[in-house]
Amino acid sequence: MPTSTTRPTRSSVGLRSERGPILLAVMVSLSLVAIDMTILATAVPSVVKDLGGFEQFPWLFSIYVLATAVTTPLYAKVADRLGRKPVMIAGILAFLVGSLLCGLAWSLTALIVFRAIQGIGAGAIQPMAMTIVSDIYTLEERAVATSYVASVWATAAIVGPTLGGVFADYLDWRLIFLINLPIGAVALWLLRHFHEHRRPAATSAIDWAGAGLLTVAGVALLLGLLEGGHAWAWSSAPSYLIFAVGIVALVAFGFVERRAADPVLPPWVLGHRVLAPANAASLIVGVVMLGLTTYVPLYAQSVLGHSAVVAGFALAGMSIGWPIAAATAGRIYLAKGFRVAVGLGALLVLVGGAVLVTVGESSSFWHLAIPCFVLGLGFGWSVNPGVVAAGSAVDWEVRGVATGSNMFARSVGSALGVALFGAVANGLVRREYAGGEVPPLEALPPDVLAPALHVVFLVGLVVSVPLLVVAWRTPVRIRQD
Q1: What structural domains and CATH numbers belong to the chain?
Q2: Are 349 and 404 in contact (CB under 8 A)?
Q3: Would the CA dihedral through 298, 304, 308, 309 be positive or negative?
Q4: What is the DSSP-derived secondary structure letter of residue 263?
Q5: 3-state helix/strand/coil string of 98-160
Q6: pLDDT tens, position by position, 338-358
Q7: Strands (DSSP E) found in 386-429
Q8: pLDDT tens for each residue of 84-95
């Protein structure tokens, strides 16, 4: 790993530096995932109008999250054995194949299947991007390098929804997926500059049994959480069966990993003094962020009466706040330590959540947008210092697993958020209708929807409280390997 004796600057770390082409390759590769996370939502009506299958459209997002989550730990382990570059290239190629097929989809079912292929590719891109940054920069340099990476997410938060709306309304929604092809081609071309000098010494076979059990457990449990209360009732035979399969596979995975010579997800990750709090922060933020991403636009449209575009701007505050925090977190943890950075993030999340709880039916747009921006800042300061610390506290040979476990924790948190907030909102609405037919949430009158979403926001605030404990458990300084 390169070392630094002076304070890094943008000229020594940025795009014009010696490692600039590699950083640019990481940024372009990451833009595939960042834009994809925001570009589709605004085009869903056009997609459904063209392909049909309105009841199935939530699967466009669920299957992507599912495929990304279950493949991330596997890619991370392979990267620690074979290197980052081949895994990143494989992920980009899978993502591009999925994008091409999505652009050619002839039905919503086909589009859902092809979105899964996209998700399989995305499962490699994001963790490899962060791992490569950890490989080529020192801890001090990462404070600058991560600001470049954060700019990708900030740009995607604005460009993604805008492009999605333009393609859907004026051109063709299929361009949402086909635009990934030239971007991916540029990313692959730029990766030619990345020459890994360190090679892991593989001394044992890949833990295929553990990989298979983790995949089964992840698919079953995440599918149960994502679809419970929608595709089937929570207290139904399909729900019990899928959770039973997931739990049995998870228990078996634990036994296998304890005996494996080179486990896919080593047990030590769970108790590591740096990784454990970092992963806990990602899990909690994943829960809260996914819930707010779903219900803040709904509140803006159905309760406050704003258009879809205005509702999107309310949520954009969160999407912009996170990368701003990520870009500035380095100065805090270098000067005051990681614990202070995460602690400030936790406090901002609680402040933003507390203000969001006070939103009412007569509130202004800014009463909704400002706390979302504060929450975004809090999320960035809570999560990003932990990601940097995790990449610095372990050796090269396990850095992929360290970074991958953090991304996996956030994906699991997202699935938990979907289940938790969905159960709260739907449960409160059903109580209002006293056993009668319940219309979709977006069709509910404001006097029914507003109280339910108020409780959802309150639950989000309560779930955020453990971030204070996570901050306290985060080390002030770490030893850089």
Answers
A1: 17-194 (1.20.1250.20), 208-261 (no CATH), 273-481 (1.20.1250.20)
A2: no
A3: negative
A4: -
A5: HHHHHHCCCCHHHHHHHHHHHHHHHHHHHHHHHHHHHHHCCHHHHHHHHHHHHHHHHHHHHHH
A6: 899 999 999 999 999 999 999
A7: none
A8: 889 999 999 999
